[in-house]
Task: inverse folding
């Protein structure tokens, strides 16, 4: 099955790039590989990929900085592939907007499966239905899923990461309902069980007047999260 999806693999080890690219191409993906961050950054400016697989140990920059730069481009999925397996690195990667985190050594077939899952989650839904809502208004904010933008009524739009936008969309489509972490994760096999909490914290910092005492997105301890505001779609 031909995916026609473009994946950039960024790793300073050429053997890792070859291994990952060969496995992805076996399953129909188009790939390009880069052994440093500046090469990848230039390529991204020329052509946006669907997914970037990023090693953190790059020779010319910290991989976290490259993740930050990629997040500035709308709609690119980010998978970190790294030998760093500490909790602070995982948390920081997710806070910067990464969608998945895989540690080395890794199983190439699992990486492909998780890339498939990630791209499926980040793909736009079926837009053929005439009544598909375009944007949501809630608590003085407007969210546009098509552009991943969150706008206050009197402010400039702010672009969410794809993972943040997906999470917020799930809450907005079920206002005043408790959604468990499993429901919010969907079919994603998550590498780190605090990923939902980290992303929720990032969203709260954007929309809550006091993120430490949130009024819009409530934590229901032992159950999950709930959007407490009314939502209208247009």
Result:
């Amino acid at each position: 099955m031909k995916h026609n999806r473009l994946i950039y693999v960024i790793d300073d080890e050429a053997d890792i790039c070859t291994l990952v690219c060969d496995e992805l191409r076996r399953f129909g993906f188009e790939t390009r590989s880069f052994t440093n961050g500046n090469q990848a950054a230039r390529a991204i400016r020329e052509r946006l990929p669907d997914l970037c697989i990023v090693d953190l140990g790059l020779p010319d920059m910290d991989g976290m900085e490259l993740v930050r730069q990629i997040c500035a481009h709308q709609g690119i999925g980010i998978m970190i592939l790294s030998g760093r397996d500490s909790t602070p690195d995982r948390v920081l990667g997710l806070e910067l907007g990464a969608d998945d985190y895989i540690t080395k050594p890794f199983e190439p077939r699992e990486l492909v499966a998780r890339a498939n899952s990630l791209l499926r989650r980040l793909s736009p839904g079926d837009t053929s239905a005439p009544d598909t809502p375009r944007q949501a208004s809630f608590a003085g904010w407007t969210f546009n899923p098509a552009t991943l933008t969150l706008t206050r009524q009197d402010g400039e739009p702010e672009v969410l990461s794809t993972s943040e936008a997906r999470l917020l969309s799930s809450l907005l489509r079920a206002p005043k309902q408790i959604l468990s972490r499993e429901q919010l994760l969907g079919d994603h096999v998550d590498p780190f069980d605090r990923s939902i909490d980290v992303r929720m914290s990032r969203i709260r910092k954007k929309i809550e007047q006091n993120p430490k005492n949130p009024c819009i997105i409530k934590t229901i301890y032992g159950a999950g999260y709930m959007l407490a505001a009314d939502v209208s779609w247009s």
Observations:
- The chain has eight helices and twelve strands.
